[in-house]
């Protein structure tokens, strides 16, 4: 098993996961996005509309697919690299559970926790003057959760010999929650939802947003693990049946 | 997952880790590629802009919103 094989496999799995996530986003995300755009149009003074460079049809099909697939390939590559570091270094966990564990941890640290602190917003929510600040806060939050996740994993690994896997994992999880909660408490809140924005549209949009990410990460974790375990079995099988020399 | 947990230690030997030395160049390459891809999907022509205009922003518009990146 080489790092190169794993990276290529991860990125291809990410493309497949991106296509599934695109279907999910189309089914559940486009309707709240369109409602939000209608809200935005109704609240913009006439004559104040920006010229459309990319039509809504392209944005909601080709644009959405390209964005989610490219993002999926990037995530797949990252999951594969983290898997390559972690595999064989977390006890005797096999390829499939290791891949699922990496993807689950990635989903929590890179998506879920940052989402809970700075949730995704549909069009019409958020003013363009604060985009720089909001982007900086969002990526800072991701930085905090990823650093806390890596730190907690190393801590848990060091404590396993003394306290056993269960207690070490509990302490690692508690440390992660404490660091992330402290970070979130220190960062300023973002409050830019227009007072009359429909709450149901916001809720449906945010649900579709986490759902799209969940489809992406779950598919990457399961598919990458299955393919890697199959590859490993073939390799060891080939080694046994044909002795080197 | 269940069969991996239940099978005997002899059936699942501890997997051999990939030496970090072999991993490093691929990790650097892969992470750079991923960072570039995520930047263009998530932030170009939003908070910062390398290429001028709004085309990338508008093309990735729906994906950017639904993937949770701050947009607009």
Automatic annotation (TrEMBL), chain A:
Keyword Transit peptide: no
Keyword field: Membrane, Transmembrane, Transmembrane helix
Regions that span the bilayer: 62-87, 99-117, 137-156, 168-187, 207-227
Highest taxon of source: Bacteria
InterPro entries: CbtA_put
Metal-binding is among the record's keywords: no
Protein name: CbtA family protein
UniProtKB/TrEMBL annotation, chain B:
Any single Pfam family the record assigns to this protein: CbtB
Residue intervals passing through the bilayer: 23-41
Keywords: Membrane, Transmembrane, Transmembrane helix
Protein name, UniProt field: CbtB-domain containing protein
Superkingdom in the source lineage: Bacteria
Native source organism of the sequence: Planosporangium thailandense
């Amino acid at each position: 098993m080489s790092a190169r094989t794993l990276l290529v496999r991860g990125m291809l799995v990410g493309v497949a996961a991106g296509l599934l996530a695109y279907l999910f986003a189309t089914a559940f995300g486009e309707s709240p996005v369109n409602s939000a755009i209608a809200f935005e149009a109704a609240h913009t003074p006439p004559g104040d509309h920006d010229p459309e460079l990319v039509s809504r049809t392209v944005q909601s099909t080709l644009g959405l697919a390209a964005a989610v697939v490219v993002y999926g390939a990037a995530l797949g590559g990252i999951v594969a690299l983290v898997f390559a570091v972690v595999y064989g270094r977390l006890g005797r966990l096999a390829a499939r559970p290791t891949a699922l564990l990496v993807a689950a941890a990635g989903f929590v640290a890179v998506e879920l926790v940052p989402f809970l602190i700075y949730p995704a917003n549909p069009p019409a929510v958020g003013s363009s003057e604060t985009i720089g600040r909001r982007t900086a806060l969002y990526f800072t939050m991701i930085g905090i959760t990823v650093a806390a996740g890596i730190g907690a994993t190393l801590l848990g690994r060091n404590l396993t010999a003394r306290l056993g896997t269960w207690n070490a994992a509990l302490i690692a999880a508690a440390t992660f929650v404490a660091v992330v909660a402290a970070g979130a408490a220190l960062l300023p809140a973002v409050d830019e939802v227009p007072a009359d924005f429909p709450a149901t549209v916001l809720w449906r949009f945010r649900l579709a947003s986490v759902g799209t990410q969940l489809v992406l990460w779950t598919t990457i974790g399961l598919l990458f693990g299955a393919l890697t375990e199959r590859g490993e079995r073939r390799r060891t099988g080939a080694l046994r049946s044909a002795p080197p020399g | 997952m269940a069969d991996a947990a239940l099978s005997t230690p002899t059936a699942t030997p501890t997997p051999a880790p990939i030496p970090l030395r072999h991993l490093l160049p691929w990790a650097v390459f892969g992470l750079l590629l991923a960072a570039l891809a995520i930047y263009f999907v998530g932030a170009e022509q939003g908070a910062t802009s390398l290429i001028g205009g709004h085309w990338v922003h508008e093309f990735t518009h729906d994906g950017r919103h639904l993937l949770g990146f701050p947009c607009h």
